[in-house]
């Protein structure tokens, strides 16, 4: 073998070793209210409108059995960032409002706080929705994030949030959320703009995300970017380049714009030469809102949507993407947003928080297409009653519903079980569904004489009390007062 060939082989081996020794970076792409059936890769018939997400699906590992921990925003986001069910942090059963004094407790450990001791730069772009609090005590920069550019709660939680008077249209013909401050755009803990310009918002987010990636890549510094878009939450908006581009109306325009930002983020990783050393994970915070007909999303073959503990409210699309590390394909293994923190912790070589975690490392699924460590999921409602607690449990392929309740957020689906008129019902014995054979939850097996079903119900009923007993009081409904996030204007720079 010639010296030159030997040198090339040695150089190649050193490059591979160097890449392996460089800590990976992490990007979480979180859509808002995007349903299981909303993407082409998950069966939606409208094609060619989300090329970036389709490239992600074709080049990554697509999950068909992936769950959010909650059918609404704040609890699901708390669970994603901490790897713990929302009941352990008190961020349940509903959401935080502009006047909420509570937030994600500061003693909870977020993904950002796990990574910072290893020298990671951390940033969140977009929707926080885990509290502001007096003196800005619950904002992301108090929870391990170096940088924050975004709206601290949901973009519909401002004056005139209904469709007819949603900015930039200033005419109000319907009921408005009076008494609320206009929606602010935050830069770290200072207000940058109020009211926010929604047509410009996604571009603002995308530009900041790309700059953050470029800065970190230029400094050879590993990073964690949590990109939490407002798309496709109702009421939808889009910038001029995306408006009118979809066959699905305003919902589709919002999805088109979100897809464009996803594409720009992936392009920034490639431009920085770090796309092969960055773990990207895409998912949605909960199922689709079905109260607005064509303005809402699509749950596909799943029952109901946002606000319910049926599959349509909690089973969401998810894609893991890491070129050269994760083999493209499809997995039917059960996993959850709860599993993201333990997985990132493992990949970074970081230390797990010294608390009870409900998530599991997904590495066996991601890199070996092996079995999942997750055997169960516990489902909590958005019902304001803390006493009811646990609604449903999944164990293996079976799911038992102890309680069911419709939601105004699923009011326009044809299924009456989903509607707000379908009041709280207790089921004894619980409803039982085989989700592998019946993901639409149509055929109740609980009354069957089959001994397998009776054995499954017995196992589930043994698991439920153990989990249900470990809950903190709710911070969402017990800590609301005359407090709104109006701050002095200011700015922050990327460092």
Strand content: 15-25%
Q: What portion of residues is helical?
A: 25-40%
Total strands: the figure is: 16
The CATH topology of the largest domain, please?
Alkaline Phosphatase, subunit A
The CATH H-level homologous superfamily of the largest domain:
Alkaline Phosphatase, subunit A
- Any idea how many domains? 2
Q: Unreliable stretches, pLDDT < 50, 5 or more residues?
A: 1-19, 160-177, 487-495
Major sheet description = 10 strands, mixed
Overall spatial form: globular
Mean of the pLDDT scores? 87
Structural class given helices, strands, pairing?
Answer: alpha/beta
Strand order of the largest sheet: 7-6-5-4-8-1-9-10-2-11
| CATH uppermost class of the largest domain | Alpha Beta
CATH architecture of the largest domain: 3-Layer(aba) Sandwich
Give the termini separation.
Answer: 49 Å
What does it look like?
There is one protein chain. This protein folds into two domains: 24-375, 3-Layer(aba) Sandwich (Alkaline Phosphatase, subunit A); 378-468, Arylsulfatase, C-terminal domain (2-Layer Sandwich). The termini are far apart. It has helices at 3-21, 51-59, 73-82, 86-89, 111-115, 198-218, 249-271, 311-314, 340-348, 363-368, 451-468; strands spanning 25-31, 61-63, 66-67, 121-126, 147-150, 185-187, 190-193, 223-228, 278-284, 318-321, 329-331, 335-336, 376-379, 392-395, 398-404, 425-434. Helix 6 packs parallel to helix 7 (249-271). The protein has 495 residues and is α/β, with parallel strands linked by helices. The longest helix has 23 residues, at 249-271.
């Amino acid at each position: 073998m010639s010296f030159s060939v030997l040198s090339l082989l040695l150089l190649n081996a050193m490059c591979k070793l160097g890449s392996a020794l460089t800590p990976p970076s992490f990007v979480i792409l979180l859509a808002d209210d995007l349903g299981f059936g909303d993407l082409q890769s998950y069966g939606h018939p409208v094609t060619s409108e989300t090329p970036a997400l389709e490239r992600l699906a074709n080049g990554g590992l697509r999950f068909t059995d992936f769950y959010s921990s909650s059918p609404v925003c704040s609890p699901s986001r708390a669970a994603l960032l901490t790897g713990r069910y929302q009941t352990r942090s008190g961020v349940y059963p509903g959401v935080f409002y502009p006047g909420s004094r509570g937030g994600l407790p500061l003693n909870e450990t977020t993904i950002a706080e796990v990574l910072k001791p290893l020298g990671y730069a951390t940033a969140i772009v977009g929707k926080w929705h885990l509290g502001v609090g007096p003196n800005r005590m619950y904002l992301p920069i108090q929870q391990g994030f170096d940088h924050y550019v975004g709206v601290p709660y949901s973009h519909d939680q401002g004056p005139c949030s209904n469709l007819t008077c949603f900015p930039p249209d200033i005419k109000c013909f319907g009921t408005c959320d009076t008494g609320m401050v206009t929606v602010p755009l935050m830069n770290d803990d200072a207000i940058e703009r109020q009211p926010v310009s929604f047509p410009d918002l996604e571009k603002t987010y995308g530009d900041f995300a790309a700059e953050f990636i470029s800065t970190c890549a230029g400094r050879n510094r590993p990073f964690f970017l949590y990109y939490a878009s407002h798309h496709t939450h109702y009421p939808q908006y889009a910038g001029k380049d995306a408006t009118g581009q979809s066959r699905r109306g305003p919902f589709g325009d919002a999805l088109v714009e979100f897809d464009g930002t996803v594409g720009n983020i992936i392009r920034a990783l490639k431009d920085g030469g770090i796309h092969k050393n960055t773990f990207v994970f895409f998912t949605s915070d909960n199922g689709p809102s079905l109260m607005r007909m064509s303005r809402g999303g699509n749950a596909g073959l799943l029952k109901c949507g946002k606000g319910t503990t049926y599959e349509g409210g909690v089973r969401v699309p998810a894609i893991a993407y890491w070129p050269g590390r994760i083999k493209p394909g499809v997995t039917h293994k059960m996993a959850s947003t709860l599993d993201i923190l333990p997985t990132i912790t493992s990949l970074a070589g970081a230390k797990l928080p010294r608390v009870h975690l409900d998530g599991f490392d997904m590495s066996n699924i991601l890199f070996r297409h092996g079995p999942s460590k997750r055997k169960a999921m516990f489902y909590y409602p958005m019902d304001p009653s803390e006493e009811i607690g646990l609604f449903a449990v999944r164990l293996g392929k079976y799911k038992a519903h102890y309680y069911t309740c419709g939601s105004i957020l699923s009011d326009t689906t044809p299924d009456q079980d989903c509607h707000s008129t379908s009041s709280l019902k207790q089921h004894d014995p619980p409803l039982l569904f085989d989700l592998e054979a019946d993901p639409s939850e149509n055929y109740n097996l609980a009354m069957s004489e089959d001994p397998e079903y009776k054995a499954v119900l017995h196992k589930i009923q043994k698991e439920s009390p153990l989990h249900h007993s470990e809950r903190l009081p709710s911070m969402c409904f017990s800590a609301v007062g005359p407090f709104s996030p109006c701050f002095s204007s200011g700015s922050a720079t990327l460092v």
